[in-house]
Prior knowledge:
The complex is a heterodimer of chains A (278) and B (187).
Chain A: H1 2-5, H2 8-30, H3 37-50, H4 60-80, H5 88-108, H6 113-136, H7 141-161, H8 165-187, H9 197-217, H10 222-228, H11 231-237, H12 246-271
Chain B: H1 2-19, E1 21-25, E2 31-38, E3 42-48, E4 51-58, E5 63-71, E6 75-76, H2 80-87, E7 99-110, E8 113-123, E9 126-141, E10 148-159, E11 172-186
Antiparallel strand pairs in B: 1-4, 1-11, 2-3, 2-11, 3-6, 4-5, 5-7, 7-8, 8-9, 9-10, 10-11
Amino acid sequence: xxxxxxxxxxxxxxxxxxxxxxxxxxxxxxxxxxxxxxxxxxxxxxxxxxxxxxxxxxxxxxxxxxxxxxxxxxxxxxxxxxxxxxxxxxxxxxxxxxxxxxxxxxxxxxxxxxxxxxxxxxxxxxxxxxxxxxxxxxxxxxxxxxxxxxxxxxxxxxxxxxxxxxxxxxxxxxxxxxxxxxxxxxxxxxxxxxxxxxxxxxxxxxxxxxxxxxxxxxxxxxxxxxxxxxxxxxxxxxxxxxxxxxxxxxxxxxxxxxxxxxxxxxxxxxxxxxxxxx
Amino acid sequence: xxxxxxxxxxxxxxxxxxxxxxxxxxxxxxxxxxxxxxxxxxxxxxxxxxxxxxxxxxxxxxxxxxxxxxxxxxxxxxxxxxxxxxxxxxxxxxxxxxxxxxxxxxxxxxxxxxxxxxxxxxxxxxxxxxxxxxxxxxxxxxxxxxxxxxxxxxxxxxxxxxxxxxxxxxxxxxxxxxxxxxxxxxx
Lengths: 278, 187
């Protein structure tokens, strides 16, 4: 059993999926949070296996985990209060820029001049973009979870191609856990409030920052992130026939966004020279 | 009285410093090398290509010190993709922690020869004591550049998990062999 838990596939796919199903189902049954809370629960389970509970030294990866949990708490509070104020996605995007400054600031300050400016602006923009557009999806559960499934998988696998298994496992865990929430959305009653900020806010900040750190600290070309950034847009605007049942709607949205993730991965693979090592 | 003590200190200070000869690491002849087991099949060799630092030696007093700073991003295992992975947060996290440092705490002499160097090795902000066994050492004029230099070979062993480098354990070995080739030119 212990050996089984050492497999990366179990740590970053099976366990977060199961945790998301369990926590999401309980949250929905007892109404203490949106079932989207399952996403962060699944992510935390993976982090416990991959990184443990240590916080020192406070690396970018550990800061990202802290921010993800904090974002989930903020998201849950916003959901509970039914807060849907005008400009909320923009507000969250600004918060994500502050988060990216905390995570990347020390490494960025080692750069100088134009390099500092372009890297800083790129990181801030991508994190803000992902956070903004995912929040715009928070009231549409199928679209939001399809987007986080695909963006998580795309970001995770791209990070692995870019030479970071750590960020890869974190991204894939978000995808698997989002998949758990998506399954619950199909199996349980429809949620009139959508996926909620408890899913979209931490997913946006986590996936934005994981993508940026994979570029900054591993070897992922930023152009791959440019392709991945289209996923929330596809999830938002892809026309889906409203007379379809929820299952085919979810399948259509997920497959469509996965195609975008696939394009990003094919491009990353091509840029990496198309080979791996072990 | 205070002036007298101060004057004595000023006179004494250069005398002490003069006894300890100071050297600057020659980056062209200083390479920290390492070995690690690859899944038990073979022993992989690698090295860091950029390092800098200082060395001090007082043969009369049988004391000395070594400080080496290694550029983590200069890791070289003769395979670019693996080097990229080793620089990533899975291993040395060179983007966040660009330097690996070694600072000696004790230099042990046997007769006139340095036989071991105890010191603190810091990787990714984690510091652990390491003992390096000096296998050879020579201080003399380099016949090529006519400069006085000191050089030594040393080896030691660490566990990478002690420094939080846990990726790939236990398939990729935990025990890491260290082999340092160091040369330093007298200031």
